[in-house]
Amino acid sequence: MKNQLELTFTSLPGNVGIARMLIASVAAQLDLALSDIEELKVVISEAVSNSIIHGYKNKEDMPITLRIEYDEKKLKILVRDQGCGIPDIEQAMQPAYSTDPERMGLGFVFMQSFMDDLQVESTVNEGTTVIMVKELENIRPSKH
Amino acid sequence: MLIEKNIQRQTLTLNLQGELDMNTSETLRQAIDTEIERRGIRTVILNLEEVSFIDSSGLGVILGRYKKLLPMGGKMIITNVPSHIYKIMELSGLPRIIEFENTPSRKMEGREK
Ligand SMILES: Nc1ncnc2c1ncn2[C@@H]1O[C@H](COP(=O)(O)OP(=O)(O)OP(=O)(O)O)[C@@H](O)[C@H]1O
Ligand SMILES: [Mg+2]
């Protein structure tokens, strides 16, 4: 991986927008199309929001780590919290599944649709790590 | 998120501007719920022309307001959705539930004819 960025920030709702700005800058540097940039903003928003809302139950002084690694071929995004964890990952990833009746259970749907690979690691009472990969070879303009 | 409110009889029109995520969707929820409860609003029109971003938190609040209006005999209309926002909304299934007006695809259909 050619470039690596790592940022740890507090679980404040306003930081979701900052995480989006960071991925948008990286994607712009990679010359990705606007539609791909929009999708990357959505997936990062979903993962970070989940950490704040579910992992930390909206507690505002907890740490979230965002790690972005990329080269010409792939972009990897990791989002990690030290929150409550997910007891049944398979169930949590089902479309429309949510533990909150006010929510639609769309976060993992978007992450799955917009990325080429999605891995979720979670331990109850220890935290959750979401790792997403986007293959860039077919979506970047080739420079020959 | 900037919310411009316009009330005419029992219709509330909201012109939204900015990003609709977990940080801002609570403001939208309150803006709509207050008017439903206080003024007996029954039709909510959401103009998303100036919305630059939406994620599941924003979509959840919109669907939640629709579900609140429904049993009161109310309705919701979503208008002028920018195409990149509409793509996200389509994936969520919202256009199959809520009435959309002046959507990007319909505009295109109009042009083809
Ligand atoms: N970081 C996390 N920590 C703990 N639980 C999580 C985490 N991420 C997801 N979950 C669990 O997985 C479920 C599904 O997540 P998903 O993002 O798909 O839907 P949602 O957040 O409930 O709704 P939406 O994303 O539409 O607002 C959540 O309801 C929650 O129970
Ligand atoms: Mg979510």
Rg of chain B is: 14 Å
CATH superfamily of chain B: STAS domain
Helix-strand string of chain B: EEHEHEHEH
Work out the helix count of chain B. 4
Helix content of chain A: 25-40%
Helicity range of the residues of chain B? 40-55%
Shape designation of chain A: globular
Number of helices of chain A: 4
The count of DSSP E runs of length 2 or more, i.e. the number of strands of chain A, is: 5
Gross geometry of chain B? globular
Radius of gyration of chain A: 15 Å
Cα distance spanning the termini of chain B: 36 Å
Overall description:
The complex is a heterodimer of chains A (144) and B (113). Helix content of chain A is 34%, strand content 28%. Chain A contains four helices and five strands. Chain A has helices at residues 15-29, 34-55, 89-92, 107-114; strands at 3-10, 63-70, 74-81, 117-123, 127-135. In chain A, helix 1 (15-29) runs antiparallel to helix 2 (34-55) and helix 2 (34-55) runs antiparallel to helix 4 (107-114). Chain A is globular, with a radius of gyration of 15 Å. The two termini of chain A are 21 Å apart. By secondary structure, chain B is an alpha/beta fold. Chain B has helices at residues 25-39, 56-69, 83-92, 104-112, and strands at residues 2-8, 11-20, 43-54, 75-79, 99-101. In chain B, strands 1-2-3-4-5 form a five-stranded mixed sheet. The termini of chain B are far apart. Residues 109-113 of chain B have low confidence and may be disordered. Chain A binds chain B through residues 13-14, 16-17, 20, 34-35, 38, 41-42, 45-46, 49, 52-53, 102-104, 106-107, 109-110, 113, and chain B through 19, 21-23, 53, 55-57, 59-60, 63-64, 84, 87-88, 91-92. The complex binds adenosine-5'-triphosphate (ATP) and magnesium ion (MG). Adenosine-5'-triphosphate sits between chains A (46, 50-51, 54-55, 81, 83-86, 92, 97-100, 103-108, 128) and B (56-57, 60).
